[in-house]
Amino acid sequence: MIKTTPLQTALIAALLGSVALVGCKKKEESTDTNAAPAATAPAEPAPAPMTGAPPPMAQAAAVSVSTVTVGKTAAADKSVAPAALFAPKDDVIVSVRTDGAANNVTVGAKLTFQDGQVAGEQNATLNTSGAETTNVTFKNANGWPAGKYRAEVMVDGKAAGTPQEFEVK
């Protein structure tokens, strides 16, 4: 929310400035019947140029995580069948399903072991204009130690989605 508050403030300021400018132009042309529609009609198109202006901040706010799935294998469409029990040599795939538009948004996944120790952390860059699945694969050449793990997802460094728990036996 820290990043979105300045963005919202900037968008409101730009919107008010655009309305004021358009209102001034309309007053020069006609002060009677066109003044009210001029103030409301440009209010909707005005944010469109502003959201395109600062892509990283605007796009980060436009992406939401709909599901987080932990599994062992990914299908061709990047979908992952959920798994709660893993063998020490299994790959751990954290599948993140997002909705919305994104341009250079960082999607991160972190695995923590039962005592809070970080077992792995990776990031991927998301560029999409709609629903997208991003898979982050964790491998351990020495095998995962037996115990309980937690997979957490972050979007631009902020917690997103529901953390998933699984176990290695």
Describe the SSE topology:
Elements: H1 4-29, H2 35-40, H3 47-52, H4 55-61, E1 64-71, E2 85-86, E3 92-99, E4 102-113, E5 118-128, E6 132-138, E7 147-155, E8 158-168
Parallel strand pairs: 2-8
Antiparallel strand pairs: 1-3, 3-6, 4-5, 4-7, 7-8
What does this structure look like?
- This protein has 169 residues and is an alpha+beta fold.
- The chain has helices spanning 4-29, 35-40, 47-52, 55-61, and strands at residues 64-71, 85-86, 92-99, 102-113, 118-128, 132-138, 147-155, 158-168.
- A 5-stranded mixed β-sheet has the order 2-8-7-4-5.
- The relative contact order is 0.16.
- The model is unreliable at 15-22 and 25-61 (pLDDT under 50).
Kindly list the characteristics that best describe this protein.
alpha+beta; 3-stranded antiparallel β-sheet
Broad shape: globular
- As a whole number of angstroms, the C-alpha radius of gyration is 23 Å
What's the total count of β strands?
Answer: 8
The H/E string reads: HHHHEEEEEEEE
Short summary of the structure?
By secondary structure, the protein is of the alpha+beta class. It has helices spanning 4-29, 35-40, 47-52, 55-61; strands at residues 64-71, 85-86, 92-99, 102-113, 118-128, 132-138, 147-155, 158-168.
